[in-house]
Write a structure and sequence with these properties.
Blueprint (H helix, E strand, L loop, with lengths): L2 H8 L7 H20 L4 H21 L18 H7 L63 H12 L16 E5 L8 E4 L2 E6 L9 E3 L11 E6 L5 E5 L2 H4 L8 E3 L10 E3 L4 E4 L2 E7 L4 H9 L13
Helix pairs in contact: 2-3
């Protein structure tokens, strides 16, 4: 195992410091040892024991690793255009010194003029009466005759007021899940995840843009983006499972995805039916169409037998 593979297993960047690597090794070792002690079956205990051995191998190899230098980021400083252009301008020719001009004689002083006394402002002109209006006044408007409805109109109005009220149609409900993925794994409590129309990402760590996201945290054998459930609305609705680089957005999962205990991992878009079992890592999820209450769906899944667990090779 080289340094790059070991750091990827520890989920550390390539420029991690020795102290960061040491702390991560101690955390991972305690984590897998705890999982191994509480494993629900010999198979799962064997998987965790392999990871314990792997962490110890990395611990021995890391003592000989040289300290990696963190990447250096240089910032490009923009130079203002006027300063950049001035740097390439030709030097100006020297200017010859000119003799200072002779001082001008002071201007003659004007004779003082006596100020005239300030008189009071003239009184305003008398106000003029407004001109007569050129538009003659309108004659008073005669009242319009009262309108009386005919017998047919009276009957129509009476029928309209006594007609029974028709309630408005209720507005459509917000988007509801087309199905549910219910966890049905040995020695684990049931847990339901909604499946909406479109792509539904399954994984261990959410990724920006990968929504909606079904996050399974209790399984270290699940990749960050492990698989995708594709739900297509119709009559009836259709569901598909995919685990490949094009659908996952980066690469296929490390340990694979399986359907109904089949040993062959999913490599292309595969149809999933109601009550089918999907295995990601060592977690098994049952797809249930959203045709009844969630409480009833969970109870029905809890009463089913467990599907055969596909043994995955973690080495």
């Amino acid at each position: 195992m080289d340094r790059k593979e070991a750091l990827e297993f520890l989920e550390l960047p390539e420029y991690a410091t020795p102290d960061e690597i040491k702390a991560k090794i101690e955390t991972k070792l305690a984590y897998f040892e705890n999982l191994s002690e509480k494993a629900p079956s010999p198979f799962v205990r064997k998987l965790h024991a392999r990871n314990v051995a792997r962490v110890k191998e990395i611990m021995a190899l890391s003592k000989d690793w040289p300290a990696a230098k963190p990447p250096v980021y240089t910032e490009q400083v923009a130079v203002p255009e006027r300063i950049r252009d001035a740097a390439f301008e030709a030097p100006a020719s020297p200017v010859k010194a000119q003799p200072a001009p002779a001082a001008a004689p002071p201007p003659p002083t004007a004779p003082a003029v006596a100020e005239a006394p300030i008189s009071a402002p003239p009184p305003p002109p008398p106000s003029m009466p407004p001109p007569p209006s050129a538009v003659p006044p309108m004659p008073p408007r005669k009242p319009e005759p009262e309108y009386r409805a005919t017998a047919a109109e009276q009957e129509s109005r009476t029928a309209a007021t006594t007609r029974p009220f028709a309630p408005a149609k209720p507005s459509p409900a917000p988007d509801e899940p087309l199905a549910w993925l219910v966890r049905h794994t040995e020695n684990q409590s049931p847990l339901a995840f909604p499946v909406f129309a479109g792509k539904n990402y399954i994984g261990r760590k959410e990724k920006p843009g990968a929504t909606p996201f079904i996050k399974v945290e209790d399984d270290p054998y699940i990749s960050k983006i492990h698989a995708v459930i594709i739900a297509e609305a119709g009559s009836p609705n259709a569901f598909f499972l995919a685990d490949d680089p094009a659908t996952n957005g980066d690469r296929a999962s490390t340990n694979g995805s399986y359907l109904n205990g089949n040993e062959d991992r999913i490599t292309k878009k595969t149809a999933v039916k109601n009550n089918d079992t999907i295995q990601v890592g060592v977690t098994k999820l049952i797809l249930r169409v959203n045709d009844t209450t969630l409480d009833r769906i969970v109870k029905e899944v809890a009463g089913k037998d467990y599907m055969h667990t596909v043994v995955i090779d973690v080495l």
